[in-house]
Each structure stands twice: as C-alpha cells, then as structure tokens.
C-alpha cells in the first residue's frame, strides 16, 4: 500500500511571508495587534495568541502607539487610512497576489465598471476587495441562485473577478450563468485556463495543489487534506478531491484527528496540505502514518506524474 505525499505542500509564499512578518515583528515589538486571523490556520493562530499577539474586534480597540498587522487576505483601504490617521504602526501582510487583484478591482471600478466578485462574501479577502470599489455598483455572488438576484446590467460596463482560493470546477457554473444573464460581461483577465476553460483569479499555488489531487486521484481511495475548516483553500482541495471521484476524503487540522479507523478498507492514500499549513504539521501527519507501518511513502507532484506517463509511453513504444 502506498501513501503519496502531494506537492506543493506546506506554506505558499504569501502565507510564509505573513508568518515571517509576524515572527519578526514579535522580536522587535514583543507584541502586535491583529483584527482578523492573519492566516486561516487554527493551530497557528492559537499559538501566536499564546505568545503575545493580541486579537481585537476593530481598529478602535488598538491603542495609539501600538503596532497592528493586517492579514494575508488584505484589508479595506478605509481601515489602512484610519490606522495612518492615528499613531499606529501598520504591518501589512497582504499577499502580493491579493494586492494585485485589489488594484485591478480598483482600476476597473474607477473606470466606471460594475464589479461582480465571485466568492464567499464573509471571507476576509472578499470583504477587503469590496473596499476597493469606489461606487455602489458591486455585487458578490457565490451560487447560480445569487445571479437571479442581480439587477439588469445588460449594455452596461460590467466585469467579474474571483476570490483567489476557489476551485475552478465550483465557479464554472456561476461564470456560465453570469455570461448567459449578462452577455456583455467582461472576464477578469484574458487568460482562459484549462481544464474548465474559464478566466479566473485563482492563484497558481492553489491550482497546483488541486492539479496534484486530480493527477493522483485514480491511484488512491483516501485523500487526507490538512487544513482548517475556515480555510477556503482547504475546502477547495476537498472540492477538487470530490470532483476527481476520490471515494473517501477527510480534512484534519493535525495528526491528532487520525486513528486506525481512517485507514480501514483503504489501499493507497494521499496527503496534501492547504497553503496555510506549516510543513512541520504535515511532517507530523507523515510520521504518524509511517508509525502504522501500513504504507510505503512516495513523493508525488505534477512533474513526477508527467515523468511516469512519459516512461510508460516510452515503454509501450
Ligand atoms: S494561497 Fe495564493 S493568494 Fe493566498 S496567500 Fe497563498 S499565494 Fe497568496
């Protein structure tokens, strides 16, 4: 029986950047305020709150002279402006990919477009994005039903953007329905991506993890996704697993949620992590699985999969 370790795993660069920033700031200041979780990982947030990071509900609760850190998912420019007006040091951990999306949304809004954001309206990234729209012509949709509620935007300048951590298979029906209702709608960019043939703003690291799941799916009957339940990225990995037809998928925060029952009636399995999970947590899951002495551990990535396919086609020649 084989346990495939899917790559990429561990932090993406945007999350690593935010984690490095909080560590550096704690060394410099000894404490820092946060308003939202700077990354969506329960274990990480629990740890930093124990080591001196202070979580508050709003900027009003941050005292003058203190330091506040904005999350990797970004904040509304109103919040950044308010902090600047007071004697508060801002450490902005917004991921550069998210920052680029914010700038595009702002640019199109200033050019008079109505903006449609496909995503979860409660997610911090979407809440922050709304702040970059400079008029009232902005709508968040997360299902085909939401599209029925949109006003008539035919013959108006209108464009859609997507949250960066979605699964393309989940948003394709929404984009198709949008195009039907608003034939003049423009896409967020000109790159039409396979395999769903849609333009979107999902980041590469998220897509690479989803693709690794798809490529390994016909070899496994259990996928273990490491990531928190409030991580959009982790839930997208689960969606990718379901869409790929994997029989059993579990999402865990750490190896403590594993037990022998998980491995009953399975042969080959795979492990992947969301982008907000430290490699040490992934490694502890791997160590737990090794300790069961049921599986041979094998690395698996898009590239190794291509090599295997090439080797197989060479053999058949
Ligand atoms: S998942 Fe993508 S968009 Fe989100 S922090 Fe990581 S690199 Fe940035």
Which features characterize this protein?
about 325 residues, alpha/beta, Cobalt-precorrin-4 Transmethylase, domain 1, Rossmann fold, 3 domains, 5-stranded parallel sheet, 4-stranded parallel sheet, 11 helices, 12 strands, disordered C terminus, binds iron/sulfur cluster
**Do you know the CATH topology of the largest domain?**
Cobalt-precorrin-4 Transmethylase, domain 1
Taking all Cα atoms into account, the compactness measure Rg is 21 Å
Indicate the CATH class of the largest domain: Alpha Beta
| Biggest β-sheet: strands ordered side by side in the sheet | 10-9-11-1-12
Share in helix: 40-55%
Described by the principal axes of the CA atoms, the overall outline is flat
Identify the bound ligands.
iron/sulfur cluster
Mean pLDDT, to the nearest integer, reads: 93
Count the beta strands.
Answer: 12
Oligomer: single chain
Secondary structural class = alpha/beta
Q: Give the second-level CATH assignment, the architecture of the largest domain.
A: 3-Layer(aba) Sandwich
Stretches where pLDDT is under 50 for at least 5 consecutive residues are 309-317
SSE pattern:
EHEHEEHEHEHEHEHHEHEEHEH
What would you give as the CATH superfamily of the largest domain? 4-hydroxy-3-methylbut-2-enyl diphosphate reductase, catalytic domain
Total discrete domains: 3
Largest sheet: 5 strands, parallel
Q: In percent terms, what proportion of residues is strand? A: 15-25%
- Determine the number of helices (DSSP H or I, runs of at least 4 residues): 11
Terminal CA distance reads 29 Å
């Amino acid at each position: 029986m084989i346990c495939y370790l899917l790559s990429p795993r561990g932090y993406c660069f945007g999350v690593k950047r935010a984690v490095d920033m909080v560590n550096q700031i704690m060394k410099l200041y000894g404490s820092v305020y946060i308003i939202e979780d700077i990354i969506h990982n329960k274990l990480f947030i629990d740890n930093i709150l124990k080591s001196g990071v202070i979580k508050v509900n709003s900027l009003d609760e941050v005292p003058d002279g203190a330091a506040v850190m904005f999350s990797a998912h970004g904040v509304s420019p109103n919040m950044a402006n308010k902090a600047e007006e007071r004697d508060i040091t801002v450490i902005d951990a917004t991921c550069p990919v998210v920052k680029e999306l914010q700038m595009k949304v702002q640019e199109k809004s200033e050019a008079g477009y109505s903006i449609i954001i496909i995503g979860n309206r409660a997610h911090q990234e979407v809440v922050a994005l709304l702040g970059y729209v400079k008029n009232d012509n902005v709508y968040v949709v997360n299902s085909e039903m939401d599209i029925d509620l949109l006003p008539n935007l035919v013959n108006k300048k209108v464009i859609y953007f997507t949250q960066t951590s979605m699964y393309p298979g989940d948003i394709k029906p929404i984009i198709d329905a949008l195009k039907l209702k608003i034939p003049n709608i423009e896409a967020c960019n000109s790159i039409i991506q396979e395999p769903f043939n849609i333009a979107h703003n999902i980041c590469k690291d998220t897509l690479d993890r989803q693709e690794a799941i798809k490529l390994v799916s016909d070899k496994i009957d259990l996928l273990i996704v490491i990531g928190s339940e409030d991580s959009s990225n982790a839930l997208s990995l689960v969606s990718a697993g379901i869409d790929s037809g994997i029989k059993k998928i579990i999402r865990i925060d750490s190896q403590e949620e594993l037990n022998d029952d998980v491995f009953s009636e399975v042969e080959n399995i795979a492990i992947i992590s969301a982008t907000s999970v430290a490699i040490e947590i992934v490694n502890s899951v791997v160590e737990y699985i090794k300790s069961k002495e049921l599986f041979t551990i094998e690395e698996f990535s898009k590239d190794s999969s291509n090599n295997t396919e090439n080797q197989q086609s060479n053999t058949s020649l």
